[in-house]
Specification:
This protein is mainly alpha-helical and 252 residues long. The chain is built from 11 helices and 4 strands; from the N terminus they run ααααααααβαββαβα. The strands form 2 sheets. A two-stranded antiparallel sheet has the order 1-4. It is elongated and about 70 Å long.
Length: 252
């Protein structure tokens, strides 16, 4: 077997560092991933590393960038799966909201409930690093790229969902605007999950402004965004008072 190139060695070390970071989670932070420990895990000497990085800070910067860039699946994969099962049963937008927001809450809290869940650990750890993106310009750039990828993916997801549940965007908003608002809301609740805080749940009774049943606080807040950003997609919506009245409750 030939000698590794510098890039192959770099990748080997960073992959080993990512493995340790995912095992220990966001609370450890990259500073607790010591370069010498990583090198021992792959059988390399310090000389191999310091031909690539000037010091441990340089290694931590690149490890942070790799973590922020790491994805095991497209951003909307879990939400799409939750929405698909609802839409197959001709569910409403409220049904989609309840299913997808509940899925997000469970996904984020898996970080604590299932320590072996690499997807949840990767999501929460990357989120934690993004909150410190000002540490390095390169990390800020990687964080911005990850955010842009997520917004583009969820914009496509919402664009596909909306006509299936009879909704369209309310002027002057765009689907991307809605995706940005939902991302901020979802990431905020994910930070709560990372802190180990329980997610508020509500049992809505018949006759309330919301459809009866179990709702997450995320779902209730998301429904508020839908009501602001979207209207019913009805060609004759402006021709009758009844249609105009229906526009005021896009979740129906």
């Amino acid at each position: 077997m030939g000698r590794r190139t510098a890039e192959e060695t770099r990748k080997l070390i960073l992959d080993a560092g990512l493995k340790l970071l995912l095992e220990r989670g966001a609370s450890a932070g990259v500073q607790h991933i010591r370069l010498q420990e990583v090198l021992r895990s792959v059988g390399l000497t310090t000389g191999a590393a310091y031909r690539i990085w000037a010091d441990q800070d340089d290694f931590h910067r690149d490890l942070s960038i790799e973590m922020v860039s790491l994805r095991f699946a497209p951003p909307s994969t879990s939400a799409e799966r939750a929405a698909r099962s609802v839409l197959e049963d001709d569910g409403s937008m409220d049904d989609v909201l309840r299913a997808t927001t509940q899925d997000h809450v469970e996904y984020a809290s898996r970080f604590h409930r299932e320590p072996e869940s690499r997807d949840s650990h990767a999501f929460i750890t990357a989120l934690a690093l993004r909150t410190a993106a000002g540490s390095w310009p390169e990390l800020r750039e990687a964080s911005a790229e990850r955010h842009a990828e997520s917004i583009a993916d969820f914009t496509a997801f919402y664009t596909e969902i909306m006509p299936r549940v009879g909704l369209r965007m309310r002027d002057p908003f765009t689907v991307q605007d809605f995706a940005e608002a939902m991302a901020a809301l979802g990431e905020g609740f994910a930070v709560r999950a990372a802190e180990g805080l329980d997610h508020p749940m509500y049992e809505i009774e018949e006759g309330a402004p919301l459809p009866a049943g179990s709702w997450t606080l995320f779902g209730i807040a998301a429904r508020g965004l839908v009501e602001v950003f979207m209207v019913r997609d009805e060609p004759d919506a402006g021709n009758t008072a009844a249609a105009a009245g229906r526009q005021d409750d896009p979740g129906r």
